[in-house]
């Protein structure tokens, strides 16, 4: 189906566009009271994600209620470990928790490379329903965690400031680490390809825990596997968002992806110079700017847009929108981008 608003896809291809497209990371499941109403009608996040009609509904909400230029499918990066045989729970106010973790070779034997058609059918169904509901209004973004970030949760068992268990394995048992990363990578390739088949117009990989590795480990345990995914996904554009990975920006610029997500610590001017027009950039307003008074919010957004001017740019925050952000501030951010000349 022909998209009515394909600004995002055109800017990724490097075409000249009328205005900068805008969406927000984590726009679907965070700030809207309308989201919370749907969320409260079920037992919790996991039930919501596994009910395709509802997942599709909350995917579309930000398009109607905020006016963003893209929808992102409502799901989580942690559906992948579950599909591989490592289930998780979402603990209220604390986040994800895995009762079992991967510690040794016998734990690894219990895992499998998942078949998304069966193990993740509910996400694919939600994508098909969201596409139908969107009716070509805007592109739909599919996503997955980058292998390193998924590995970090599977070994650590939950969120962590240090992910010290996951990082210990890289030194104590690098062979096992590579085996697990390879299984995650193979699952992710199948999964994102299935998302594309179901209707996703582009794919974003979230490497949220990129910033905790030294450059030599990032190269060996993350970049390599992201490149395999980038090379495998030839059907649609791929965005790489590696939070805190300024130390590896040269390698990230070499990935066979189309778009690079930047967090708010990244130096736009320097990266633009290094990229020399090769990539589209996405980002990178500090999410805390959405707590600022309106005039400051507008000024900071315009400053960010000015820094990217003349490059291929998708306006976004530098990370997911914080859950207690006022939706009116989000609307002002979006309006400011749309009005910018
Ligand atoms: O717009 C959207 O909300 C789309 C859906 C989406 C996405 C893209 C969710 C729903 N999660 C994600 C990605 C995700 N999940 C990432 C990568 C992006 C990022 O860095 O923010 C990560 C690291 C997770 C893991 C995760 N899931 C956490 C972080 C835990 C930690 O280690 O600190 C948490 C709290 C979740 C739960 C979750 N995921 C999504 C929602 C709506 C929620 C809240 C659950 C609830 O409603 O109770």
Automatic annotation (TrEMBL):
Q: Subunit details for this protein?
A: Homodimer.
Please state the pathway this protein functions in, per its UniProt record: Porphyrin-containing compound metabolism; protoporphyrin-IX biosynthesis; coproporphyrinogen-III from 5-aminolevulinate: step 4/4
EC number per UniProt: 4.1.1.37
Cellular localisation: Cytoplasm
Reactions listed under catalytic activity: uroporphyrinogen III + 4 H(+) = coproporphyrinogen III + 4 CO2
* Organism of provenance: Cyclobacterium plantarum
Which positions fall inside the Uroporphyrinogen decarboxylase (URO-D) domain?
21-30, 141-157
Source gene? hemE
Tell me which domain of life the UniProt entry assigns to the organism this sequence originates from. Answer: Bacteria
UniProt similarity note: Belongs to the uroporphyrinogen decarboxylase family.
Name the enzyme's class.
lyase
Q: Name one GO molecular function term.
A: uroporphyrinogen decarboxylase activity
Specify the protein name: Uroporphyrinogen decarboxylase
Enumerate the UniProt keywords alphabetically.
Answer: Cytoplasm, Decarboxylase, Lyase, Porphyrin biosynthesis
What this chain does, per the record?
Catalyzes the decarboxylation of four acetate groups of uroporphyrinogen-III to yield coproporphyrinogen-III.
Site keyed Transition state stabilizer: positions: 76
Task: List where this protein forms a coiled coil.
Answer: none
Q: Where does substrate bind?
A: 26-30, 76, 153, 208, 319
Predominant place of localization = cytoplasm
Pfam family membership, one: URO-D
């Amino acid at each position: 189906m022909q998209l009515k608003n394909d600004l995002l896809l055109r800017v990724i291809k490097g075409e000249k566009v009328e205005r900068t497209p805008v969406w927000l990371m984590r726009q679907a499941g965070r700030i809207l009271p309308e989201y919370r109403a749907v969320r409260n009608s079920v037992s919790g996040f996991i039930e919501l994600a596994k009910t395709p009609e509802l997942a599709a509904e909350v995917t579309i909400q930000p398009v109607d209620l905020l006016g963003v230029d893209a929808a992102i499918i409502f799901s989580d990066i942690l559906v992948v470990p579950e599909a591989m045989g490592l289930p998780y729970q979402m603990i209220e106010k604390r986040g994800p928790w895995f009762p079992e973790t991967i510690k040794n070779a016998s734990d690894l034997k219990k895992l499998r490379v998942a078949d998304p058609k069966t193990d993740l059918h509910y996400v694919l169904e939600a994508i098909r329903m969201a596409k139908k509901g969107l009716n070509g209004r805007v592109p739909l973004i599919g996503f997955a965690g980058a292998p390193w970030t998924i590995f970090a949760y599977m070994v650590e068992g939950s969120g962590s400031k240090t992910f010290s268990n996951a990082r210990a394995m890289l030194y104590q048992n690098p062979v096992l680490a590579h085996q697990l990363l390879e299984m995650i990578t193979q699952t992710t390739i199948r999964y994102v390809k299935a998302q594309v088949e179901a209707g996703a117009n582009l794919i974003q990989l979230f490497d949220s825990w990129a910033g905790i590795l030294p450059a030599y480990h990032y190269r060996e345990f993350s970049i390599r596997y992201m490149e395999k995914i980038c090379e495998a996904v030839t059907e649609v554009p791929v965005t790489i968002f590696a939070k805190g990975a300024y130390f590896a920006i040269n390698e990230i610029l070499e990935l066979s992806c189309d778009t690079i997500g930047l967090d708010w610590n990244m130096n736009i001017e320097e990266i633009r110079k290094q990229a020399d027009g090769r990539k589209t950039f996405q980002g990178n307003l500090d999410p805390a700017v959405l707590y600022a008074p309106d005039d400051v919010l507008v000024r900071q957004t315009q400053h960010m847009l000015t820094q990217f001017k003349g490059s291929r740019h998708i306006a976004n925050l530098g990370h997911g929108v914080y859950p207690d952000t006022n939706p009116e501030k989000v609307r002002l951010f979006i309006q400011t981008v749309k009005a910018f000349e």
